[in-house]
Write a structure and sequence with these properties.
The structure holds two protein chains of two kinds.
Chain A: H1 2-37, H2 41-47, H3 59-65, H4 72-103, H5 109-121, H6 125-137, H7 144-169, H8 173-180, H9 185-196, H10 198-214, H11 217-222, H12 231-238, H13 246-266, H14 268-277
Helix pairs in contact in A: 1-13, 3-13, 4-7, 4-10, 4-12, 5-7, 7-10, 8-9, 10-13, 10-14, 12-13
Chain B: H1 10-38, H2 48-51, H3 59-70, H4 72-105, H5 108-118, H6 120-123, H7 126-137, H8 144-151, H9 161-164, H10 168-195, H11 199-207, H12 212-223, H13 225-241, H14 244-251, H15 257-260, H16 263-272, H17 279-303, H18 306-310
Classes of the chains: A mainly alpha, B mainly alpha.
Chain lengths: 282, 317
């Protein structure tokens, strides 16, 4: 019995060592950047970024926040201007469409739904080239509105799919009762279905917010003027061609990722449900 | 069940559907059609007025084919894609499975913390995650990997990991960076599937004296077959078309352009990159990518036995 317990303990220790070492390797780049951002760079060079001794400073953060060339402050402002509408608008539009797909039958329904699924599987490469000249001709190139529209469109397909699956699983008795009482489609949707769907809406919103905030490529393609740059572009541009200010770059990186990471920390449950839910059903 | 159970108001339903329909039409369907069309035109340098109405048939596809057969750079692109997709896919699926099983067997409180950690790369903005690895693999003595290796005395002078150690240096970097992001997807899917397995099955196996290994190979993995298929196919398609992290690593010089450019990145660089921008060729390459992805996805589903997988295993568990 004692030997068996010893063997179990040994196994427990080995598993923990393996898991912890993977975790440390996993987070090494994050730790390095965090350390570099709070230390004067001259000390990082001398002692190495892993050294805890020496001075700590917030200078890098202040410099990155109000950098004259590329500033995190302007980046934050633009990112919020883009991300909030680009989360709410597609969510609302997708919820309306998903409700119709879930509850009613109409001509071409199956075909439209298949189109939606095909679109979900389409890579970005299939649409970026035309999007570039479409935005140009609509006068939305280098405009935050253009970026909002593109993100809205990009989010619509999977949101509709996800929300349709969720609505399918909702009990219909309440809706039927409301209809008997004389409520219209719109009333039922806004007063009954949407409030009951808050968990699904939270999942979708969390994922879309992170996606839009983290996006780099649409912003890179469709924004030109540094005053319009979202935060990811601002931070990436801080890396000069010849001179690299590692402290500034690290502080900027931390500020750019802190928003989605904070949201993730708060809404973790919804993220995981969202990742599992919209891809796997039945 | 999908009958008109409600008295429907046609106009109201149309209003419900119309916004989604219009946006999908404008920003997806029309662009996809235009991309296919552009692949038959000599469009370059965004010169729409000059080239949009010129049709050259399959010329772009022929050029693409002769580039792959004759041009060493284009051939390297194909080679990079094969190596990158194959190895990263294996890491994403098997690594995701391994992490999910590890989380399943270790203490619940510890595993909650770890799962947060594993999702960190996915939650980090692409540009920022690129910057982290830029710093990590940087070729100077400032680079994190170089600074660690030098202070441990493993190397004498800094190594540009993605430029010098050809071809596995650049390949390893793009595989590691994309693998760390991708592996969390499989983990989340597999872990939630493991959690939904009825406890009685596991307890019964334990009573019969099954070890962790026996439990995993005989019960857990067979029950995950559908999820394995799904993650493999999904990751295969997304790895074929992903270019975000790789683009930044190549653009910033962490990874050599020749050995870091995959097909997906080639499409992007041909249309938007430096020098001459050849949208006709890029569109053709994008169309080929989608066709290729569809075929590979279909083969994967067939090879892994989709028909057998959708029926739940019975009897032997």
């Amino acid at each position: 019995m004692a030997r068996r317990r010893g063997k179990l303990l040994l196994k427990y220790i080995i598993i923990n060592i393996v898991v912890w070492s993977i975790a440390i390797i996993w987070t090494l780049p994050f730790i390095g950047v965090a350390m570099t951002s709070v230390k004067p760079f001259s000390e990082v060079v001398v002692h190495g970024w892993w050294s805890f001794i020496g001075n700590y400073t917030l200078k890098n953060f202040i410099d990155a926040w109000s950098n004259p060339m590329y500033s995190v402050a302007i980046g934050y402002r633009n990112s919020f201007i883009v991300t909030i509408p680009a989360t709410i608008a597609p969510l609302f539009i997708a919820a309306l469409a998903a409700y119709v797909f879930s509850r009613f039958s109409f001509p071409l329904k199956t075909l439209l739904f298949i189109v939606l699924l095909v679109i979900m599987a389409m890579p970005q490469q299939m649409s970026v080239i035309p999007l570039f000249f479409m935005l140009n001709s609509m006068g939305l190139y280098d405009k935050l509105q253009g970026l909002i529209l593109v993100h809205t469109a990009w989010g619509l397909a999977w949101m509709t799919f996800f929300l349709k699956n969720f609505f399918d699983a909702l009990p219909r008795e309440i809706e039927e009762a409301a209809r008997v009482d004389g409520a219209g489609d719109a009333q039922i949707f806004f007063k009954i279905v949407l409030p009951m769907s808050m968990p699904a809406i939270a999942s979708v919103a969390a994922i879309q917010f992170t996606w839009v905030w983290s996006d780099f490529f649409y912003a890179l393609m469709f924004l030109v003027n540094p005053d319009n740059y979202v935060v990811t572009l601002q931070v990436a541009s801080m890396k000069g061609q010849y001179h690299i200010d590692w402290g500034l770059l690290s502080a900027g990186s931390i500020m750019a990722m802190s928003v989605p990471l904070l949201l993730y920390a708060l809404l973790q449950k919804y993220y995981v449900r969202g990742m599992v839910g919209w891809t796997l059903k039945g | 069940m999908k009958k008109n159970i409600f008295s429907t108001n046609k106009v109201q339903l149309l209003i419900f559907l119309l916004p989604a329909f219009l946006i999908v039409l404008l920003f997806y369907i029309i662009p996809i059609i235009i991309t296919v069309y552009v692949s038959f035109t000599p469009m370059r340098n965004w010169n729409i007025d000059k080239y949009f109405n010129v049709i050259v048939g399959l010329q772009n596809y022929n050029r693409l084919f002769s580039l792959i057969t004759r041009d060493p750079v284009a051939r390297q692109v194909v080679m990079n894609t094969v190596v990158f997709v194959a190895i990263t896919l294996a890491i994403n699926v098997l690594g995701g499975l391994g992490l999910a099983l590890a989380n399943f067997f270790i203490d619940e409180r510890v595993s909650t913390g770890f799962r947060t950690l594993w999702l960190l790369p996915r939650m980090t903005p692409i540009a920022v995650y690129g910057l982290l690895w830029y710093y990590f693999f940087h070729g100077s003595s400032i680079g994190m990997l170089n600074s660690i290796a030098m202070s441990l005395g493993l190397i004498k002078k800094p190594i540009a990991w993605g430029q010098e150690v050809i071809p596995w240096g650049p390949w390893s970097i793009i595989i590691i960076v994309n693998g760390f992001v991708g592996v969390s997807f499989g983990m989340v899917i597999f872990y939630s599937a493991l959690k939904s397995i009825p406890r009685e099955l596991i307890i019964a196996a334990r009573v019969d004296g099954a070890s962790n290994w026996k439990l995993t190979t005989n019960i857990l993995i067979p029950l995950l077959r559908w999820h394995l298929l799904f993650v493999t196919t999904w990751q295969l398609l997304s790895l074929l078309t992903t270019y975000a992290h790789t683009f930044l690593l190549v653009e910033w010089g962490v990874v050599s352009r020749t050995y870091g450019q995959t097909w997906a990145l080639y499409v992007f660089n041909t249309a938007f990159g430096r020098g001459e921008q050849d949208q006709g060729l890029a569109a053709a390459a994008a169309v080929i990518l989608v066709i290729f992805g569809a075929i590979l996805g279909w083969i994967t589903v067939r090879a892994l036995g989709f028909n057998k997988m959708i029926t739940k295993p019975k009897g032997d568990i």
